[in-house]
């Protein structure tokens, strides 16, 4: 596994370098949360572009983002050797809340990644840079991200790695142990964890997703049961709209 992570690192670093160059950009911007996904992307971008060309935005929310996560995010940026800025999002969030009341908690929760996305692009535009996404293959396949929130980015360095593989890469890259050890969380409300919200562990989710990707549905059902496999297939189907461009009705046959 050591050897394969070496190769994975090399492939991703080359991808980042080539992609940023082909975009005529002078570097990248990314949100750094203190979680393992953004830590890996920060380390990889730094290796590819040099730390001075990578800006990590640490965007905590008062009362929701844990102090420990902010400390970890700072440590990640320092260890990766990238520049960073801390931008509090609570005031911006308050402004939105003032516009209209909404009793659906998820609407307010999704505002947070969307505000972070706007800030990433503001800095990217200012600096002639592009936005590095931190989505992994597990999240992308089941749609566990906010559409045009953390889903809003220009390229996906770890988008072909399942979450369980992201952990292996993190070990290989030397991401701080505390970041690797903590439970994955979107951090949208106090106490949120990915596995509780999705109702499945990443270990099982990734094993099922790998079977589905290879078309081995029967094997997946044998190993994990029909209910779990149906649940995952349903998550994939229901989130198709997040992975494709907005659909337009075709009219060319009427007009050309
Ligand atoms: N069939 C369809 N065709 C086209 N568009 C469709 C659609 N169905 C819904 N939509 C649109 O999509 C919206 C729903 O999607 P969205 O707004 O994303 O909202 P939704 O998928 O309900 O929520 C986002 C989920 O991602 C999780 N998350 C968010 C951020 C970060 C992380 C993390 O792991 O760090 C996880 C979050 O905890 C929550 O479970 C609808 O309001 C509608 O606008
Ligand atoms: N407080 C924050 N400051 C800056 N960026 C954030 C913050 N919270 C979330 N983000 C951005 O949203 C992305 C999606 O969050 P997600 O939780 O999936 O990844 P992670 O926090 O890096 O890793 P983990 O899933 O292990 O928590 C993060 O990688 C980061 O880019
Ligand atoms: Mg997180």
Automatic annotation (TrEMBL):
Positions with a binding annotation for deamido-NAD(+): 114, 147, 154, 241-242
Enzyme class, spelled out: ligase
One MF term in the entry's GO annotations: NAD+ synthase activity
E.C. numbers: 6.3.1.5
Keyword Nucleotide-binding: yes
Domain NAD/GMP synthase, chain residue ranges per copy: 10-246
Cellular component terms (Gene Ontology): cytoplasm
Reactions this protein catalyses: deamido-NAD(+) + NH4(+) + ATP = AMP + diphosphate + NAD(+) + H(+)
Keyword field: ATP-binding, Ligase, Magnesium, Metal-binding, NAD, Nucleotide-binding
Metabolic or biological pathway, per its Swiss-Prot or TrEMBL entry: Cofactor biosynthesis; NAD(+) biosynthesis; NAD(+) from deamido-NAD(+) (ammonia route): step 1/1
Binding site for ATP: 31-38, 134, 163, 185
Any GO BP annotation: NAD+ biosynthetic process
Keyword Metal-binding applies: yes
Sequence positions that bind Mg(2+): 37, 139
Role of this protein: Catalyzes the ATP-dependent amidation of deamido-NAD to form NAD. Uses ammonia as a nitrogen source.
NCBIfam families per UniProt: nadE, PRK13980.1
Family: Belongs to the NAD synthetase family.
Subunit: Homodimer.
Name by which UniProt lists this protein: NH(3)-dependent NAD(+) synthetase
Organism classification: Archaea, Methanobacteriati, Methanobacteriota, Archaeoglobi, Archaeoglobales
């Amino acid at each position: 596994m050591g050897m394969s992570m070496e190769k994975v690192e090399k492939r991703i670093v080359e991808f980042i370098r080539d992609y940023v160059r082909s975009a005529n950009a002078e570097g990248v911007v990314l949100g750094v949360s203190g979680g393992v996904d953004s830590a890996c992307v920060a380390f990889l971008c730094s290796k590819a572009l040099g730390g001075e060309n990578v800006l990590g935005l640490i965007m905590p929310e008062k009362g929701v983002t844990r102090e420990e996560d902010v400390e970890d995010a700072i440590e990640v940026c320092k260890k990766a050797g990238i520049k960073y800025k801390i931008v509090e999002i609570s005031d911006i969030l308050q402004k939105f809340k003032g516009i209209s009341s909404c009793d659906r908690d998820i609407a307010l929760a999704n505002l947070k990644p969307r505000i972070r996305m706007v800030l990433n692009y503001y800095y990217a535009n200012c600096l002639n840079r592009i936005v590095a996404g931190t989505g992994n293959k597990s999240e992308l396949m089941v749609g566990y991200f906010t559409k045009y929130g953390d889903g809003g980015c220009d390229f996906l360095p770890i988008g072909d790695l399942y979450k369980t593989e992201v952990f292996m890469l993190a070990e290989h890259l030397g991401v701080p142990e505390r970041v690797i050890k903590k439970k994955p969380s979107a951090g949208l409300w106090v106490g949120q964890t990915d596995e509780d919200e999705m109702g499945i562990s990443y270990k099982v989710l990734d094993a099922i997703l790998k079977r589905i990707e290879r078309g081995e549905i029967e094997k997946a059902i044998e190993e994990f049961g029909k209910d779990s496999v149906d649940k995952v297939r349903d998550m994939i189907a229901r989130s198709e709209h997040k992975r494709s461009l907005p659909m337009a009705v075709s009219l060319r046959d009427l007009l050309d």
